[in-house]
Amino acid sequence: FKYIVTYGTSMGGFGSIKYGKLFKATHCISFAPQYSISPEEVKSWDRRFLSHYNPSLNNNMEIIEADLAGTSYILYDPMYKEDAVHANYLNKIICICTCFSDFTYSYYSRK
């Protein structure tokens, strides 16, 4: 295929970025992705997914530059604090095109 696109929202958005290289993606489109759900990384500002964290499965799972394949786009609502902080962390680590999109935080994007 000329183009391979991964897509997801919330933790699916995380997966679209985290495993984009594994799937040889040319583009990743992610709505309101998490940078990490590790309590060590996010517990002071995002407690939404801490109950889903299992150290034996999720340890060292934050997105790093080596995960990125092709061009990645993040769409998130800058007014939703937790999603904005995740996007900010991702932008510090890897070169990502961000788009502001009202009402795209995890709850609305799954409706």
Q: Helices, strands, pairings?
A:
Blueprint: E1 5-9, H1 11-18, E2 27-31, H2 39-42, H3 55-58, E3 71-76, H4 81-93, E4 97-100, H5 106-109
Parallel strand pairs: 1-2, 2-3, 3-4
Summarize it.
With 111 residues, the chain is an alpha/beta fold. Helices cover 30% and strands 18% of the residues. The protein is globular.
- What is the string of SSEs from the N terminus onward? EHEHHEHEH
Secondary structural class: alpha/beta
| Main beta sheet strand tally, sense and closure | 4 strands, parallel
- Proportion of residues in extended strands: 15-25%
User: How many individual helices?
Assistant: 5
* Spatial order of strands in the largest sheet: 1-2-3-4
**What sort of overall outline do the alpha carbons produce when their principal axes are compared?**
globular
Helix content: 25-40%
What's the gyration radius in Å?
A: 13 Å
- Average pLDDT score: 85
Span of the ends, CA to CA: 31 Å
Instruction: Please give the number of β-strands.
Output: 4
Unreliable residue runs:
none
Task: Tell me what you see in this structure.
- 34% of the residues are buried.
- The chain has helices at 11-18, 39-42, 55-58, 81-93, 106-109; strands at residues 5-9, 27-31, 71-76, 97-100.
- It has 5 helices and 4 strands; from the N terminus they run βαβααβαβα.
- It is 30% helix and 18% strand.
What labels would you give this structure?
single chain, 111 residues, alpha/beta, four-stranded parallel sheet, 5 helices, 18% strand, globular
